[in-house]
From TrEMBL:
<feature type="domain" description="Integral membrane bound transporter">
    <location>
        <begin position="448"/>
        <end position="570"/>
    </location>
</feature>
<feature type="region of interest" description="Disordered">
    <location>
        <begin position="325"/>
        <end position="404"/>
    </location>
</feature>
<protein>
    <submittedName>
        <fullName>FUSC family protein</fullName>
    </submittedName>
</protein>
<feature type="transmembrane region" description="Helical">
    <location>
        <begin position="149"/>
        <end position="168"/>
    </location>
</feature>
<keyword id="KW-1003">Cell membrane</keyword>
<dbReference type="InterPro" id="IPR049453">
    <property type="entry name" value="Memb_transporter_dom"/>
</dbReference>
<keyword id="KW-0472">Membrane</keyword>
<feature type="transmembrane region" description="Helical">
    <location>
        <begin position="123"/>
        <end position="143"/>
    </location>
</feature>
<feature type="transmembrane region" description="Helical">
    <location>
        <begin position="481"/>
        <end position="499"/>
    </location>
</feature>
<feature type="transmembrane region" description="Helical">
    <location>
        <begin position="440"/>
        <end position="461"/>
    </location>
</feature>
<comment type="similarity">
    <text>Belongs to the YccS/YhfK family.</text>
</comment>
<keyword id="KW-0812">Transmembrane</keyword>
<feature type="transmembrane region" description="Helical">
    <location>
        <begin position="30"/>
        <end position="63"/>
    </location>
</feature>
<dbReference type="Pfam" id="PF13515">
    <property type="entry name" value="FUSC_2"/>
</dbReference>
<keyword id="KW-1133">Transmembrane helix</keyword>
<feature type="transmembrane region" description="Helical">
    <location>
        <begin position="506"/>
        <end position="523"/>
    </location>
</feature>
<feature type="transmembrane region" description="Helical">
    <location>
        <begin position="529"/>
        <end position="546"/>
    </location>
</feature>
Length: 763
C-alpha cells in the first residue's frame, strides 16, 4: 500500500462515526461522579482545585469503560490513585525544566512500556501522562499540589463507590463474551449445513476464555449462568465439524447428509436460545422443533459409526448447555455428576460404550451435567433430557468426575509482578512495545520543548496531544491523530461560541463541563471524532471554570494540537515498528504451534488416554494464540505503507487459508480421540514424531524464505500403509493433514523470487 493510500485509509478511519449500542445509564453514573467531585471541590477549595480534581474523576470514569474483565471499582481506584501520584511528582519538578524533562521522559517511557501488560493498562498510563501535563500548571504550592493529588484520588474513590452502589449490568461484559461464543457456534453450525468445511474464527472462544479468568472476589459472586458454558462451547465446536465433514462423517449427498443438516439446524437454534438467555439473564425457551430433531428415533437408523457417535455427543453437550443457560448447573459442592450422561432419546449409540462427552477435558471447566431431578431442567427440555428409570451399576456407585477449578486472574495487588514480567519480555530489540516507548518518550520531550518555545503559552498541549494519540501500531496512531485534530477543531469552535454568547460564570462552566463529559461517556464508543470533540469542550469549560479566559486556550489549543499530531505521525514514519516484515515469522509460529497440536492429538491414538488430555488442550491454546497473532498482524499489515519483499499479499492469504485447513483437520481428529482402554494404533506414534519434526523444520524454512518440504510425514504414512493397520479416522485425517501441508508449500511457492526451491526434493 502506498503512503497516499495508507493516509487516506487511516484518515477515513479516524473520521468515521460508527453506530454502536449506547449505554446511557453508565454514562449518567460517570457524569454524576464527576459532578459530585466538582461540587465538593468548589465548596471546600475553590475553582482552581475543582478544575484539577475533576480530571481524576473524569479519568476514573473513562477507566471503567475500558474493555477489561476486572471489577470496575478496582479500575476506578487504580486510575484515580495513579493520576494523583503522577500529578504530585510532576508538580515537584514542573517549575524547573532541567528536572521536569527527565521526569517527563521517564514517566512517558514507562507509560509506553505499560502496553506490554495490556491495552487497558497502556491507555490508563498514557492518559495519566497527558492529564499530568495539564494539571501541574494549576497548583502554586506543594501543599496545593498535594491537595490536588488527594482530590484526584478522591475522584477515583467516588466513581468506584458509585459503581458499587449503582451497578449497571455488573456481569454484562462477561455475559456478552460467553453469549458471543455460543452465538458464534450457532452461526458455525448453520454454515456447516451448506459448507461442510466452513472456517471458524476462534476469537470469540478466546475472548470467552479471557472473560472466564476471575479474581477471588469475582469467583465468589459469579452468576450460575456463567458456570461451565465456555467449556461446553469449546467441546461443541469439534463435534460440529466432525459431524459435517465428509472426510470423517457422512457423504456429501444422501439421507445421511439430510439428517446431519437437520441436526445442525437444530443445534444452531438451541445455541442461539442459550446465548440469548445468558446475555440477558432470561429464562431458556427451547424451540420445540429443535427438541424434536434430537428426539427423533430415525437418527440411530440413518447414521452409524463416527457420525452417530458425533450426533450422540452433540446432543449430550447441547443438553448441558441448556442446563447451564438456565442456571441449573450443579455447583462444585454438590457435583457428583453422572459419569455417562445420556444422549437425547433416539440418539444413543446402541451397543457402544457410554459417551464421556461431559467429562471436562482438562479440569478447567465444570461438567454441568443434568440433575436427575427433571424439575431443575430449563422449560421445555425435560422431554429431551429424560433419564432412564432403571438404575445402572455405574449409577449406583458413580465415579466422581474432577471438579473444575476456575481460571484465576491476579488481584490488583498481584498484578504488578505480572506486569513487570510482561514488560521484561518486551524489553528486547525490535519489540513493537519497546519501540513505542522510545518513540513516545522522545516525542513528549520534543513536543514540550517546541510548545515552550512557541509564543502561545500553555505549551503542554503539544506533548499532551501526541501522548494521547500515539499507539504501538501505525493505523491507530495515524487515525487517532486525524481524529484528535478534527475533534479538537469542532469542540473548540462550539465551546468558543458558547463562551462568547453566554459568558458563563464558575458554576455554569462547571455544569457545561459535566454535560460535555456525559456526552463523551455516551459517545466514546462511536468513534474517536465524537469523543475528541467532547473532550475538547470539556477541557475548555473546565479551565474556564478555573479562571482562564477562552482567548488563552482556543488558538493555542488548535495550533499545538496540530503540532502534537504531526510530531506523532512523523515519529512513526522515522522510527516505525512495521508489522509487515514480521508476517513470515508470525506464519512460521502458527505452523509450529499447529504441528505441536497435531502431534499431541495423533500421539493419543497410539496411547489412548480418554478425552481428558491436558497436553492436547495446552497445544490447542498455543495454536489459537498463534492464529490470533497472525490475524492481528495481517490486519495491521494491510494498512501499512510498506511492502514485504518476501511474501506477497496473495501468498500470505493462500498460506493462511492452508493453515486454517490444517487446524480444521486436527480438530476433526481431536473430536474422535479414542477412549481410555481402546485398541492402540502403534503407527500413530511414529506419525506424531514425524509431524512434530516436519512442522518445526517447515517453520524454520519459512523464516529463512525457503519452501517447506514434508518428506518425514510422507514416509511415516507410507510405513503406516505398509503395516496394514486400519483406522478410518486417524489415517484419513493424517492424509488430509499432508494434503494441506502440500497446499501450504504451493502457496509459498508462487512467490518467487526470493523464495528458493531445493531441486533434490521432489514434490
Amino acid at each position: 500500500m502506498s503512503w497516499f493510500r495508507a493516509l487516506k485509509v487511516t484518515t477515513r478511519s479516524g473520521l468515521t462515526v460508527e453506530r454502536k449500542r449506547l449505554e446511557p445509564l453508565i454514562a449518567l453514573r460517570g457524569a454524576a461522579g464527576l459532578a459530585i467531585v466538582i461540587a465538593v471541590s468548589l465548596s471546600l477549595f475553590g475553582p482552581a482545585v475543582a478544575a484539577g480534581s475533576a480530571f481524576g474523576a473524569f479519568q476514573a470514569a473513562i477507566a471503567t469503560f475500558q474493555r477489561s474483565w476486572r471489577p470496575r471499582p478496582e479500575l476506578a481506584l487504580a486510575s484515580g490513585a495513579s493520576l494523583g501520584i503522577s500529578t504530585f511528582l510532576g508538580y515537584l519538578t514542573g517549575s524547573h525544566l532541567v528536572f521536569f524533562l527527565p521526569l517527563l521522559a521517564l514517566w512517558t517511557y514507562l507509560a509506553g512500556l505499560a502496553w506490554a501488560a495490556g491495552p487497558t493498562i497502556g491507555i490508563m498510563a498514557s492518559s495519566n501522562v497527558a492529564m499530568m501535563l495539564v494539571t501541574i500548571t494549576l497548583p502554586t504550592t506543594i501543599a496545593e499540589a498535594a491537595g490536588h493529588a488527594a482530590m484526584m484520588a478522591f475522584g477515583g474513590l467516588v466513581q468506584a463507590t458509585l459503581v458499587i452502589l449503582f451497578p449497571v449490568r455488573r456481569w454484562g461484559a462477561h455475559r456478552d463474551a460467553l453469549a458471543d461464543a455460543l452465538a458464534a457456534e450457532a452461526d458455525y453450525a448453520r454454515r456447516l449445513r451448506h459448507d461442510p468445511v466452513a472456517a471458524f474464527d476462534p476469537e470469540p472462544l478466546m475472548l470467552a476464555r479471557n472473560a472466564a479468568a476471575l479474581t477471588p472476589r469475582q469467583a465468589r459472586t459469579r452468576p450460575a449462568q456463567l458456570h461451565g458454558a465456555r467449556g461446553l462451547a469449546e467441546r461443541i465446536r469439534p463435534v460440529l465439524a466432525s459431524l459435517a465433514d465428509p472426510a470423517v462423517g457422512v457423504p456429501e449427498e444422501g439421507p445421511e447428509r439430510d439428517r446431519v443438516r437437520e441436526l445442525l439446524a437444530a443445534a444452531g437454534a438451541i445455541l442461539d436460545v442459550a446465548a440469548r438467555a445468558i446475555r440477558h439473564g432470561s429464562p431458556v425457551k427451547v424451540p420445540p422443533d429443535a427438541i424434536a430433531a434430537f428426539r427423533s428415533p430415525d437418527t440411530g437408523a440413518i447414521l452409524s459409526g463416527p457420525p452417530q457417535r458425533a450426533a450422540t455427543r452433540l446432543g449430550s453437550l447441547l443438553r448441558d448447555v441448556l442446563e447451564t443457560a438456565g442456571g441449573t448447573a450443579p455447583t462444585p459442592r454438590d457435583s457428583a455428576p453422572d459419569p455417562a450422561p445420556q444422549a437425547p432419546a433416539g440418539l444413543k449409540d446402541r451397543g457402544s460404550a457410554p459417551d464421556p462427552a461431559a467429562q471436562s477435558p482438562q479440569g478447567l471447566e465444570k461438567n454441568g451435567s443434568a440433575d436427575p431431578d427433571l424439575g431443575n431442567l430449563p422449560p421445555g427440555a425435560a422431554g429431551w433430557a429424560r433419564r432412564p428409570t432403571v438404575p445402572r451399576a455405574e449409577d449406583v456407585a458413580p465415579t466422581p468426575a474432577p471438579v473444575a477449578q476456575p481460571l484465576r486472574r491476579p488481584s490488583i495487588f498481584q498484578l504488578l509482578p505480572v506486569a513487570v514480567r510482561a514488560i521484561r519480555r518486551e524489553a528486547r530489540p525490535g519489540s513493537p512495545v519497546l519501540r513505542h516507548a522510545n518513540r513516545v518518550a522522545a516525542v513528549a520531550v520534543a513536543g514540550y520543548l517546541i510548545g515552550d518555545l512557541l509564543p502561545f503559552g500553555h505549551g503542554y498541549w503539544a506533548p499532551m496531544s501526541a501522548v494521547m494519540v500515539m499507539r504501538p501500531d501505525f493505523s491507530q496512531t495515524y487515525s487517532r491523530a486525524v481524529a484528535r485534530f478534527g475533534g479538537t477543531l469542532v469542540g473548540v469552535t462550539l465551546a468558543t461560541a458558547i463562551l462568547q454568547l453566554a459568558h458563563p460564570g464558575t458554576y455554569l462552566s462547571a455544569v457545561l463541563a459535566v454535560v460535555c463529559a456525559a456526552l463523551m461517556y455516551l459517545l466514546m464508543r462511536t468513534g474517536q471524532l465524537a469523543a475528541q470533540a467532547c473532550i475538547a469542550m470539556y477541557v475548555v469549560f473546565l479551565l474556564g471554570m478555573g479562571g482562564q479566559e477562552w482567548s488563552q486556550t482556543v488558538p493555542e489549543r488548535v495550533v499545538l494540537t496540530l503540532v502534537g499530531g504531526v510530531l506523532a505521525m512523523l515519529s512513526y514514519a522515522l522510527y516505525p515498528a512495521w508489522e509487515t516484515p514480521r508476517l513470515r515469522t508470525r506464519l512460521a509460529d502458527w505452523l509450529a504451534a499447529l504441528g505441536e497440536y497435531a502431534a499431541a492429538v495423533v500421539a493419543h491414538y497410539a496411547s489412548p488416554a480418554g478425552k481428558s488430555c491436558p497436553d492436547v488442550r495446552e497445544a490447542l491454546l498455543k495454536a489459537r494464540d498463534a492464529h490470533i497473532a497472525w490475524e492481528q498482524a495481517a490486519a495491521r499489515a494491510k494498512t501499512e505503507p510498506v511492502r514485504h519483499r518476501g511474501l506477497s499479499n496473495a501468498a500470505a492469504d493462500e498460506a493462511a487459508h492452508a493453515l486454517h485447513h490444517i487446524g480444521r483437520v486436527v480438530m476433526l481428529m481431536e473430536a474422535h480421540l479414542p477412549e481410555r482402554g481402546a485398541t492402540p494404533v502403534p503407527a500413530a506414534d511414529a506419525l506424531a514424531d514425524a509431524l512434530r519434526a516436519a512442522t518445526r523444520d517447515g517453520a524454520q524454512a519459512i523464516r529463512e524464505r525457503r519452501i517447506p518440504r514434508w518428506k518425514p510425514v510422507r514416509d511415516a504414512l507410507d510405513a503406516w500403509d505398509g503395516e496394514g493397520v486400519p483406522d478410518r479416522v486417524v489415517r484419513r485425517g493424517a492424509a488430509l493433514f499432508l494434503e494441506t501441508l502440500e497446499e501450504l508449500s504451493d502457496a509459498l511457492d508462487t512467490d518467487v523470487p526470493p523464495m528458493t526451491r531445493e531441486s533434490t526434493d521432489q514434490r
